[in-house]
Amino acid sequence: MKIQVITLFPEMFTGVWGASMLWKAQDRGIVQYSTIDLRTFGLGSRRTVDDTPYGGGDGMLLKPEPVVAAIEAAKKNDPDALVLLPTPRGKLYKQSDAKRLAAGGKGLIIVCPRYEGYDERITAWVDEQVCIGNYVLTGGELPAMTIIDSVVRLLPGVLGGEHSAEIESFQDDDETVEYPQYTRPVEFRGMKVPEVLQNGHHGEIAKWRKDQ
Ligand code: ADE
Q: Is 162 helix (H, G, I), strand (E, B) or coil?
């Protein structure tokens, strides 16, 4: 799966892609990450990417020309890719979306807005507008990382244990939350691991976990 991110801050992604499971996924050839620096599509000698809003108001908006040129460049690399736009105005992103994107197998192009927003006309080049939670961030980079992490961990061959991605929180979006887990020591600062987990009866353990 190709994952391309259009951003003014490509350096934000190097740490995320260079560590842990996301790095392993790339090392195993399951995903290929790349960033497209929006600035390179900026207009004029100053590589301008933003401008003031029509009708007045605070802040600057991303101009449509550089954003659409960047999307078109990304599409040349991966014509069938889905174009995602993180925005607080988008549909709330859930585990079922991560599953759908992972199972769909299509590449992703994620456009990261900055400043106070973007010219609405860019949405004509976008397949899905997604909001990762009811709070406002300074740009689309952290939402993009969240989406990438949630999708890549579900791709076959990324997680170690066969069932690691099966028995976990939010399997049915809001319906399921994972049971509590414990490791050694059996007692820590007066707090003990529940008896049932220590006695090794699979049936009882399964029932306790389900109840939790
Ligand atoms: N950009 C700023 N805040 C956001 C959010 N909560 N979700 C997606 N994109 C955003």
A: coil
What CATH number does the domain containing 69 carry? 3.40.1280.10
pTM metric for this prediction: 0.93
In the chain, the number of structural domains is 1
Mutation choice for ligand 1 from 12, 61, 87, CB with most ligand atoms inside 8 A: 87
**What's the domain range around 14?**
2-152
Substitution site in 12, 129, 131, 147 for ligand 1 pocket (most atoms within 8 Å of beta carbon): 131
Q: How far apart are CA 188 and CA 177, in angstroms?
A: 24
Q: Which residue ranges in the chain fall short of pLDDT 50?
A: 162
Give the nearest ligand 1 atom to 87 CA: 9
Q: Ligand 1 centre from 111 Cα, in Å?
A: 12
Distance CA 140, CA 3 (A): 15
